[in-house]
Amino acid sequence: MTTLAAPALPAGLIDRLRRARSVAALTGAGVSAESGVPTFRDAQTGLWAKFDPQELATPSAFARNPKFVWDWYASRRERVAQAKPNPGHLALAAIERRVDEFLLVTQNVDGLHQAAGSVNVVELHGNIRRVKCSRGCGVVATWDDPRPDEPPRCAACGAFLRPDVVWFEEMLPPAALEQAEDGACRCEILLVVGTAAEVYPAAALPGAARRHGAIVVEINPQPTALSADVDHVLRGPAGVVLPALVAAAWPPP
Ligand code: OAD
Question: Is 42 in the pocket of ligand 1 (CB under 6 A)?
């Protein structure tokens, strides 16, 4: 087995992190990659390299073929149910315990941050373990059942239930977006972890944080659309870099 080394951590950044009163993180699919949950845009392994998002992640796709969309989300839900938080998730939960004010904004729908112990979590794109009425009658429920043959029906109005995730062409939950924007504008340090930063409005949060004076740190093994516009780039997997960051900022006694 190859053990990946963490990149060099700038001393100035470690010092700022240790002294920061308010820290936020924006996470994407990459933070869960080491838990076995596939990303979307990685060239060989990303979901969008194998599947067409227009056929699976839009309201019109669900209207055309609800069973196809339901089955795809059911198989993703099964995979997520088997996944465990990795050292990257655990390190973010550890940072929350050490700073006065911490907000974790995630684009992920897998619930692994909460499973790792993160408390102040904003889910911008929903959660795959929940379903909601596709007609919008307001019914929302958790969904852990094995997959039925047909998408289940809303008990209130009879329409199909659908995953409670944000699809392309849909608005983000307004309260979640407002909380995320507020967190980005208040924090002293924003950690941007495992996101290609290509999907808006999440991808606009690092810029907003920076305009409000935050230090923006990208943690990602690959360059992204954001890399040129951050203060620090830490190249490496979240499960290696984040624990190293925590150990450097708060060394064990
Ligand atoms: P992407 O798949 O677009 O990007 C994943 C990022 O994670 C890439 O930049 C990878 O280099 C990086 N990565 C891979 N392994 C990593 C690791 N071990 N540690 C850290 N980073 C790693 O995923 P997102 O940016 O989250 O939306 O995608 C945003 C949204 O697009 C998703 O929420 C989803 C998708 O379409 C919807 O479904 C609405």
Answer: yes
